[in-house]
Structures are given as C-alpha cells and as structure tokens.
Amino acid sequence: MYITELIEKDLKLENLYKKDSKITGVTDDSRKVKPGMVFVAVKGNKVNGISFLNEAIAFGASTVVCTKRQAYKIKEKKVNIISSRNTRLGLALISKKIYPLQPSNIVAVTGTNGKTSINNYLFEIWKANNIKALSIGTLGIRYDKTLDKTIHTTPEAPILHKELHKAKRKQIEHAVLEASSHALHQSRIDAVNIICSVFTNLSRDHLDYHKTFKNYFSSKVKLFNKILDKNGFAVINIDNKYGEKVLNICKCKDIKAITYGTKKKCIWQLKKIKKLNSNQAIVYFKFKKLQYSFKSTTLSAFQNENILCAIAIAHNFGIPLNNILSSIPEMSHPKGRLNKVSINMNEDISIFIDYAHTPEALKNVLEELRKIKNKKGKLNLVFGCGGDRDKGKRKLMGKIANDLADVVYITDDNPRFENPSCIRKEIMKYCKKSYEIASRKEAIFQAVNELKEKDLLLIAGKGHEQKQELNGKTIPFNDEKIAKIALKKRKSK
User: Which superfamily does 3-97 belong to?
Assistant: First the structure.
C-alpha cells in the first residue's frame, strides 16, 4: 500500500514528500514507529501527539496524520502530511486500509456491567457448536485456548484491525468484542463492520473522563446510531431505563431490535431461577410464548441474565436453540466474575472474587450473595476504590457496602498516583461498620481468618486483575491467589 491509497473524504493529502512512499504500518505512539509507518498525532487527555513528531520522523515515519492547522505549521518537515478533522477517526480509517479483512459476523457489547461475561458466554457457545471465533475484551484476545493480554478493554484501532484481519485470514467468521465508552468516544471501532450491537445496562462509571452522565450515555449510544451496520441487529436489556432509550433509538432508525431481561414484554424473558445446590440451578426463560430451561453452574440472577443474552445472540446467528441450551452446563465462567475460591477443606464458609468496581455492580453482587447466604452466617466484604478515577463512586460504594454487608474491610484497590489513605477515608465516611486495613493482602488475610461457620466473604474490585498500581509502580497481585493462601493458613491452625 502507498500513501496515495490512504486518501479519502475524511483524509486529505496536504504535503507529498515522496510519491512512492510504501506504507508499512500505522501507530499513534511515536515509540512504536518503524521505517515506513504512518504516525497519527492524536491529542490525548494530557499530551498532544504532535509534540512527538520529531521523534516519530527520527524513527522512520514516512507520513504524519494531523489536523489541518498543524499541517500548515509543519510543511517544512521532510515527511508526507495528511490532515484529518478527527485524528482518532483518521487512525481507525487508516488501520482498516492497512488491515482490510474482517470476519463477517462481528458482535460488539457495550454497557457499564456485564460486557466481559456476555463476551465469554457467547464465545463459549460458539466454541461448543464448532464455530471458530475471536474474542476481544477485558480478559484479552482469545482464539480457542490461546489468550493474549491487552492494555485496554477495547484495543486501539491498529491492534484491533490487525487482529480482525488475522482472524479473517484464519477463516474465522465470528468475533465478539467489548466496546468500552472510551473506545466509542475515541472512534476506535468506527471502521469496524459491526453486525450486532449489544446493550447491557448503564450506571455510574468513568465520569472522570466523560464529565457528565449524559456524555457517558451518548458514547454508548454511538454503537447503535452510528456504527451498527444498517443490515445488522441490536440486542438490548430493557430492565434498565437506558435500555428503553436505546430501544427507542433503534426503532427510530428502523434497526431490528431483540430485547431481553425480566420484564414480560421482553422477547427473551428470564422467568425464574431454581436452586439445586450451592453450585447449580435450573434457569427458566420464555421465548416466543414458550418456556425453556437450562442448567446453570451459577446461582447469580445477573450472570444468568448475561447467559440469556448470549443465547439470544447465538440463536439469531442461526444456531438451533436446543444445541445452544445443551452447551450451557459445560461453559466456563469468565475469570473474576463471582468466582468461588475453593480448596479441599471441611469448613462451611464461602469466599467469592468479583470485579465489581462500580456502585451498581457492587450492589448487584452483594444482593445476589445475600440471597444464597446461610441465614445463620454473615456477609463480609473486602473492597476499595481506584485512584485517579471517578471520585463520586466512593460515596456511593461506601453507602452500598454499609447497607448490604455485615462486616466491611476497607483497603486499597489501585490507588495509582492518589494518596491511598485519602481514598480509604472517603469511603469510610459513608461506611460506619468498616475496618481500615491499608495492605490489601493483610485485609484479605484478616477477613478470611475472622470468618465464622456459615459466613460468606466477597473480595471485590479487582476480579481477574493480576497486578496492583501504587504510586506509578505496578506490583504482582492476585486476589484469588492471596485468598487461597489465607485459607490454607487458616486450615493449618
């Protein structure tokens, strides 16, 4: 591919230094530039990519993409220059040009909570029905058993398009990706041919970035009113009032919409969950006026609702319902999503790990655990809140913990560059029944050690994560691993 092949209505050639410049790749990170690559000068929250232009050229960038104003100022540089009104969109468009292939059936899941679970369950259903698929999200990039970690829930456009291109070349025609609000706002998936858009729910999160809830919702809606293929379909949870709003948008745009949830008007309605034992349940649902059921290895209502969503998507892609339902009991659950910690022990206590890091997610999981908890036992909680993120969540999560947990240990999550003590104090203002333990390891050890018979413990906030960010440093940390060590030490007493 050559420089002139990149030009389209949203990308204008401002300076042609070398007509025959062959494009070898694209990046918005000057440190990753290699000879012949396109460098896109994206403006971030803290720095502007144009500041690293000289570095990018020194590393061999043949072309730079920037705004028209910036192009005017740097025309003396010995480099091809392309202007774009939206450099993030430009990054996506060029990424698609360089990596043009995509699977035919791409599903994008958005919402505050549930994205990772639905991604996982849909992938598992496809796999069980011998459909080769690609999964991209919080847990990484997954082909069958292989898993590569990613920095972001939704990778930057060059990585995303490269992966989709690779999947197509492997003759993979099904892909599911998580569409974060940041990714949608930053146009990372604007050039992806989405055939199915999924909306789970909306509650407070990421207001440090979006500033207002209205902006946050608008970023999610973009997946339906701007990105979804005109011949595609939407799958929407209408238990949440914002789901109703998304549904109305789809109706206005004449987009096929499939609804799920607990309401009677849902096309896929979750009816009842009948507990079989501590690890199994029968889930009953209605579809086209008929009742069906499947055996589930999770008792959680919201997780079974996520499974129902995956069932609805898979069925709409043509997999017979009986085939889908028969595969459910064998599915693996997403890591860090209400996972039970278990070692061989005789004690009647339960410990769960969950990623719940938003007020709504914490509320949901605590309510679910109260339902399954033995009446004689207490529901204990270990959690904290992240630093350099939406501070408004701390008050809400403190109140939720105070209302729904019996014993609360406030500790550090990922303080990042914030003072950890200040974060803990903000939470504790609204959680009077809490104990403050700075070290997350010590908090888990103490919480496990103080469990009584029939008690249940939730360790929330980090879920699948295997690191902790403290003052600019990243240290290895795994909630489940620490909990198992604590259990063994408790066992050895």
Answer: MurE/MurF, N-terminal domain (3.40.1390.10)
